[in-house]
Amino acid sequence: MSANARLEAARAYVQKRPEDRFGLYTLAMELRKEKEWTDCFSTFQRLLSLNPGYGAGWYHYGMATRESGDRDGCLAILRRGLAATEASGDNHAHAEIESAIDEME
Description:
By secondary structure, the protein is an all-alpha fold. It has a single domain (3-104), classed as Tetratricopeptide repeat domain (Serine Threonine Protein Phosphatase 5, Tetratricopeptide repeat, Alpha Horseshoe), CATH 1.25.40.10. Helices cover 82% and strands 0% of the residues. The chain has helices spanning 3-16, 21-33, 37-50, 55-67, 71-88, 91-104. The longest helix has 18 residues, at 71-88. The protein is globular and about 35 Å long.
């Protein structure tokens, strides 16, 4: 399946299931691959507004922001993710986010 086909499939899935965590995460990641930053970031924001403790979402939202050239924005997102994963008890994601922050500082 081509990148464009994966992206369109993810969009179609989210259109049918707009609050599905898996669908939103997949769509955000496909948008990230295509460097469609505006849609990517808004999809991550929707994902995390619905699933505030979802560590993988915070981590990859931060990394996408860094890839877009916004280092400060990345750190801000990762710090929010650090707090969210601490509150949710997601120790694995918390450690990954903490490590990413340490590498950038």
